[in-house]
Amino acid sequence: MISPDTRASRLPGLLIFCLLLLAIPLASSVGAVSLPMKSILSYIFSRGQSGLSDSQQIILMQIRLPRVVLAALAGAGLSLSGLVFQAIFRNPMAEPYLLGVASGASLGAALFMMLNVPILILSTIGLTASAFAGSLLSVFLILMLGARNRNNMSSLLLGGIAFSAIAQAGVSILMMINREKIERIIFWTLGSFSAATPKKSLILFLILIPSVLFVLSRHRELNLLSLGHEEAHSLGINPEKVSFILLLVSCLMTAAIVSTCGIIGFAGLLIPHLMRLISGPDHMRLTGLSLMGGALLMILSDLLARTLIAPAEIPVGVLTALMGGPFFLYLLHKNNGKGQNL
After folding, report:
1. Considering Cα of 238, then 240, then 246, then 252, what sign does the dihedral take?
2. Which of 44, 338, 83, 23 is nearest to 211 (CA)?
């Protein structure tokens, strides 16, 4: 029998899940051509009894739904990556964007674009692999900078900010050298789901699903890492090995998202914090809530990005920066007020 306390603890998760289910048809219905939500639901569940015209069905299946799915995957992956970084580095301000991992991935992706690989499948794999190499390079350099004091988040964050600036400067130089590709490269600097296609959504899905399942299966190790490496070692895990594997998986998720959608900052900072307020520090619940919360945030952010000044579109990375930047300053003020290190 489920106790009242258990029901109460599950209520926020159930509410977020319901909001996520509602956000998908809502975001699919809004755009230059309005599609009735009832018809969308009927089309998805009955296939053919929806009342949508042929052109509306094409808009839904080729444009709207792939974009919504891509936004949901990106939000979920970035939130989970942020959660893993925060557990490993034991600091609430760690996330792929602030540590320069996303910028490293964007530089790797921009460099690969210069190669002009003509075969589509090789181009897709190479783009993600190059972004992954860039993200790994940033993590390696950041860890090297913070090697003398692993728990000194000031060194890690400052190293991440410095590497991020260098990587973005590299992307700017590539844009200057290759002016004919400036529009494609600038895509990675702002973040957008405007180029979403069913194929891109499927590729990102195939990369993220095993990564997400792996992180979900490691919730106990994440709990132990949050206590500190010495405590984690005394409780039976090898913290260096576990951290290394989880960092690799997080970098892969970040690289796959950046190579598909560009840099979308602060999602990995904002969502884990909000979900932690709801669920507490236990990563068994926190990972699931962060996945749903990240997906919900990104679907709604993308909906705002393409409707606020329609027919023009705001890069979704700009909106997440407007939300996450003030939150970052709040965390900075809060930690400084407590006399804590970054």
Report:
1. negative
2. 83
